[in-house]
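Researcher: Last one for today. Full complex below.
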Amino acid sequence: MSSLALFLLVVALAALGWLMARARATAFRRGGSAPRAHSLPSYHGWYVALWTAVPALIFIAVWTPLSANLVMDEVMSAPAAASLPPFEMQRVAILREAREIAEGIRPGGFHPESNALAPAYADALSRTRTMGAVVALLLAFAGGAFAFTRVSPHFRARTRVERLVMAALLGASTIAILTTLGIIASLLFESARFFSLVDPLEFLFGTHWSPQIAIRADQAGASGGFGAIPLFWGTIFIGAIIAMLVAIPLGLMSAIYLTQYARPAVRRWMKPLLEMLAGVPTVVYGYFAALTVAPAVRDFGKAIGIASATSESALAAGLVMGIMIIPFVSSMADDSINAVPQAMRDGSLAMGATTSETIRRVIVPAALPGVVGGVLLAVSRAIGETMIVVMAAGLAANLTANPFASVTTVTTQIVQLLTGDQEFDSAKTLAAFALGLVLFVVTLLLNIVALRVVKKYREAYE
Amino acid sequence: MRRRIRRRYAAERRFRLLGLGAILLSAAFLAFLLVTMVSNGLGGFRQTEIRVDIDFAANTLSAASAGGEIEAAVAAAAEAQYGPGGARALSDTAWLRVERAIEDDPSILARKKALWLPAASAIDGAAKGDGDGEAEALVTRLEQDDAIRTGFNTDFLTGADATDPAAVGIWGAFKGSLLTMLVTLAIAFPVGVLSAVYLEEYAPRNRWTDMIEVSINNLAAVPSIIFGLLGLAVFLNTFHLPRSAPLVGGLTLALMTMPVIVIAGRNAIKSVPPSIRDAALGIGASKVQVVFHHVLPLALPGILTGTIIGMARALGETAPLLMIGMRAFIATPPDGITSPASVLPVQIFLWSDEVSRGFVEKTSAAIIVLLAFLLAMNGLAIFLRNKFERRW
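Model: Here's the assembly. Have a good evening.
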């Protein structure tokens, strides 16, 4: 019996338990002779249903991965397994075929070995599955029966059920912590392995990045270069400089226009329209950058006499990223401009200043901390952005301030290092985790600082 | 004095125009992006077909013929009809359609039959007005014979990835996206809603709760590629789940979407007025009953809106999925959540890397499909918000 069928069967049993227990609890109520029941009948139903389902489902969840290993052990000990080729890839392919034959997905295998293995596989599969199904159903019946015997007018079913609900709530909210811990642990653990191979100082301050690992030990550049400064520079150049040169003026001026000048109808239409820019998937921006913007930038560079202009340039990636960031800047600026007390605006206008003078001399300075916070958030968003730079910025680790040249970023290199088939333990793949750690720490710091700035500023006017 | 006022008013007008210009420029970028994609991509929904007369009686094909034989017969028929180069005018997968025609109606094996077969990528481009001289000459000749037509490309909507741009389809990636989103929703929605309820309604003020809040707010700001690294290190290398499967993609995206749902859910729950809770408590409901019978149903529209927005973000996400190996060439739609799959954004990324010119319109067409879905999801979210949002 497959896991899914077993799961459905257990759920059906639980539903049956729910109905039976509720019927029994309803009978107490009707009887009238018994004292008034503590819990409503449906709570008795839930109590029985949970006792039926939860232990059995936990067992299934543990058993399913465990049984796969058991099946594998049994298949490998079968006589037909002795003729398996030693190569990992072939073995995996043959075993997969044997499983598919055993399950009846395909009639016959491409490899002769898989046909020989199939009966052993089918045998092992059916044995472990029957075992799992029997134990799961026993658990379900035992749990359900135990709970059913406790259904009585005095039994506090509601309290028990609510206790489980609270446990589920607490459990769900710890998943957030587990995820954070998982991120930190996996990044730290893999980075530690990387730094046992490569000196951390060389990684952080080296200027030579060429993560190829030589095939032979005596080859030139056998150790590879893991100086990440060119990547950090490329990331800052694209995400924090070029993108912000586009996003800050456009985002800030849009926010000013929408909050100060635009009629409500215009504002109602333009604000969602601007926010659509943030909803476009980054892969679409990346394609747009590579297909349309990059050739235009290259031609422009050639036209103004820069011979080194390539079709993968920092400018193209940065421009498109800046467009993507506009709504972040503008919505943060919007919020902080709206938070400036009306009295300050009125005071300035009453002194005879024009609207633009009020905005430039009073509102923007007053809203500045919020705007700065928004810009910091936007920077953290820009440097973590992946697809645009992967598709438009190129792979050459240049340390250059020429916007028409190709630069590479931290995220591009993470993608580059981890895609493709290679050993997971090489310095090359581990370097991706070290880069990820740097990215994580930097974005975290930027966010903390930004939120601090925004919070402090809010308090100033409240 | 008057001159000075005039100057100040001019500055005022300039500033105002600058603001308007900024908005219009941003909107123009959006319009330009959409127009580029639509104008490039509309061609991808149309397919050029060439009529080939195959004399089944004259060749040795039978219902049990292998693919290679059919392919050779089709090539021979095309060469015979349109001269040398005729076979190259057909798509690599044109014989599949002949095979299907034989399956549908085995009686055609005894006679001569004109079949419309998909054209090769170069011919397809030339027929749509973007080809080289040789292909265009052939198209002109075919047009004179009335042997070429351009129709709606059903293969694009029903097929999967292929090496030939004329034969690619979006269904495989779309199904992968659908399965991935199902896994994401099945995990992120319950976990997100339950955490939001806990944090907003029950959590005591202590360090543990503070830690949960801090981690949720941080997770919402972590770059998506970091989630990909987490998925790679935990789901693939520790738990050994299958590579490039919707299961792993869905789990990874669920961790990314959950904070969005928690934050939206908390705001929705917070906006339910305390009088509702007090009234329910006052007539004897337990704390769990108050939340699950009264607060949650009232907060549900807000939670759903947040969920849809979070799911739309997950649907467009590419980088974390690249990390867990979802960039393989997958030529068949996935059968389940554990079989290898591609998803729409990754498919777009893969096609954008192809050099062949035919892929440009297919990539843009895939982008149109993706954007249409995102627009529909966001439209649904706005509709829900406008219809069910209550101000207390």
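Chain A touches chain B through 87 residues (CB under 8 Å). The two ends of chain A are 64 Å apart (CA to CA).
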